[in-house]
């Protein structure tokens, strides 16, 4: 204890504790990752969701322990911190908002790991949520993965509309839009669209209908039929917009969309 009265020795001691805490946090996270993979070998999304939560919990615990270790130095530097607080608020506004966004995600849970979401102009599947950003596997206009990974600042949760594309769970409702000129035969277009959509969704539509029935009972909501339907809207002064709505498994959304587009134009032919 006498040794720790020496400022240099005390500083080195605190430095050693700091490295020890950081190393402990690293190894605890690795151990959690290994344990959860063993615990949920057939449910990777569940394991990843739990890992992200526990990993951030460990990070916060290490952070607050480090604060307590260096409390005296922090107290001594308090006046300096106050002096630069204004600058930090301005320059670090995005960081503060992102931290608040993470708190909002943790408490209100607008989405989870594995969900398909659209936030702002970004669209993809959630693969990670950390203190500052949410990671997405990007889904392009075609409904297919682009191979890119997006890091969306958590601050956007507070300022942008979030579209939850997988809110219903295993199956969800999707719309596909096809633009047709006014001169097109709309009756035939609707017939072809329904024929193609029914063919594409034939392998899962009955299961989707039963799934929606269970959701209606458990959540007290009124859901439309899982069977494909067609609606029309005016697009502009020259064309209609034909909207095909159908139920589809989350992981088959892109394939179904492409199959319906190709099948429709192959059967309907040029306008």
UniProtKB/TrEMBL annotation:
InterPro entries: LSM_dom_sf (IPR010920), MscS_beta-dom_sf (IPR023408), MscS_channel_2nd (IPR006685). The keyword Transmembrane helix applies. The chain crosses the membrane at residues 12-32, 53-71, 77-103. Residues 95-163 form the Mechanosensitive ion channel MscS domain. It is found in: Membrane. Gene3D superfamilies: 2.30.30.60. This is Mechanosensitive ion channel. The lineage of its organism: Bacteria, Pseudomonadati, Pseudomonadota, Betaproteobacteria, Burkholderiales.
